[in-house]
Here is the input.
Amino acid sequence: MNMHTARAAIGRDTLKTILGIPVLAIRWDDAIALLAQLVAERRFTKVSFLNAHNANIAYTDPTFAEVLDDFLILPDGVGVDMASKLLYGAPFPDNLNGTDFIPAFLQASSRPLTVGLLGATRVNAEAASSKLSALAVQHKFVVIHDGYFSAAEEPAIIDRIAKLRPDVLLVAMGVPRQELWIARHIDQRHCTLPIAVGALLDFLSGTVPRAPLWMRRLRLEWLFRLWIEPGRLWRRYVVGNPLFLWRVVGQKFSGAEAGPGANH
Here is the structure.
């Protein structure tokens, strides 16, 4: 399904453009219903999430920005909410971060689905698969491969996905590799919904701890992650978050179109 057709069907007024990337402004239950409908109708749709970090990457990487233009993008985190307030006067209706939203979507889907898992380490992917199988017993979860494969191994992995043809393919390779990989290798012959899920399998496996619920409710999960992995994440949050908001302020005052169809 062409993403521009999908956006037209959803309606232009449900999209907010953040740094040139159209993001779905939709309630949690409506987003679950939309994904369920796409699967039921077997409408091939690439899905990803926008947060301050990958918005920054897309801002400086035209290839990544172009690839995202063909994805259905859901809002993830406090950064894009602040951007939405600055540009549109209101936050997104709900925070559809993949770590919470994807398991909720799978739990809510009563129709039995086949879900492929690709990415993370083998141990984490297997542990995530077990966790998901317990959360959503109606579905079949299949670990296709870990995220550490060579170019030589790629054709066999893609062939395995095509043979399985899962309804949902969770691709957990980090940004922007996962989106670029989906864009280059996955189409309607392979699955219905390829979803770029970042660290979801690591979180589900329990290897990477989640912030306590009170921190998540206060929208401070990023601070917890920074505390857990300062070496890897300080640049993303301490430098990246203010930079992202500075760029959004630039979008607001440059006269660049904030609505759908803004240029990258």
